[in-house]
Amino acid sequence: MESRWFGFLAAAGALTLLGLISASRMYFGYAEAGHPISAGDALGSGMMEWWLWAPLLPAIGAFARRFRFERGRIGRALAAHVVGGVVASLAEITLFAAASALIRELRFGEGSLRAELSSGFMFEFHTCVVAYWTAVLTFALWDQAARARAATVRRAELERSLAEARLGALQSQLAPHFLFNTLNSIAAALRDDPDAAERALARLGDLLRTVLARRDRVTQTLADELAFLDGYLELQRGRFGARLTIDKEIDPAALDSSVPSFLLLPLVENALQHGIGARPGPGRVRIAVTRDGERIEVAIEDDGVGPPADDGAARRGLGLESTRERMRISYGAAGRFEISPGAARGTRVRLSFPAVPA
After folding, report:
1. Which among 53, 58, 51, 67 has a CA at the least distance from the CA of 19?
2. Mean pLDDT (10-residue bins), the chain, 358 residues
3. Is 46 a member of any domain?
4. Is residue 167 part of a domain?
5. Does residue 241 sit within a domain?
6. Which of 71, 78, 125, 217 has its CA 20 to 30 A from that of 352?
7. Could you tell me the pTM of the whole model?
């Protein structure tokens, strides 16, 4: 609808401009020849000459779309438009002659359609042919631009659907991975503390309901992401007990930003299993989320055993690799994923991506 209105306004503006040019040419031309006419007559004649093209433009546009200048059909299109140019020019000359004869009859009582047709054909035919071809080429360029825009939109929609499908596949990989790891933790607690294992199973049920409820959501807010992490960390406290400390630094300005669903879960899970769980004694996990202008910065750091000497080993883990891939699909070059040693020891994972409102 907006495109049609823009086309209508563009055509109206072009016809009006041509009418003004024609009116000024007539006004000054007749004055130079010693037969001056009034500005009103010049303006009326110039506007009528070009605005009478308006009823012909829809037909010319349809004809231009029917006979496009496409590879393998250029000769056919040229022949069609040679004929179309003659027909449109004769139609325009006839309309202008009829309007001029009617005006002369009303004003001076001497209107003659034949005389107007004769003079119009002699002086206007070449101008009408040029005007027709200008209109055809304009419609062709407009149609080509519209098709290019449509192709760009279709390509963007296809890329988005493919990206969402890949994100969904990665997300579905995380669910069983998370479930198996959690069940292993609960199984380890069954013998030593059956009551804690029972509570953990109830908590796991709540988390699984959340996973199922959001299984079709490719993205969610950071607030929802962090709320899910709270439930997961509560479950893990039953496993680690007093030896686990969680520090959180959350910037409220970042909470309404959109992120891929369960983006942070594998990072926290990795910090607990391969960082804190890989060594005895107490451990600490720090989760920091800040908003810096139009970017979100996330850091997840543990004080565990630290990253492997071979960084490639860290990259091969399902959780880290899936997060890296989801960042790449969701944000492209605008997203950053970094793994480095922690401040004292352990591992720090840092994410940075644009702040996109949910």
Report:
1. 51
2. 68 83 83 83 84 88 88 87 90 87 80 77 81 89 83 69 52 57 69 72 74 72 89 78 88 92 84 79 90 93 74 52 82 90 84 89
3. yes
4. no
5. yes
6. 217
7. 0.50
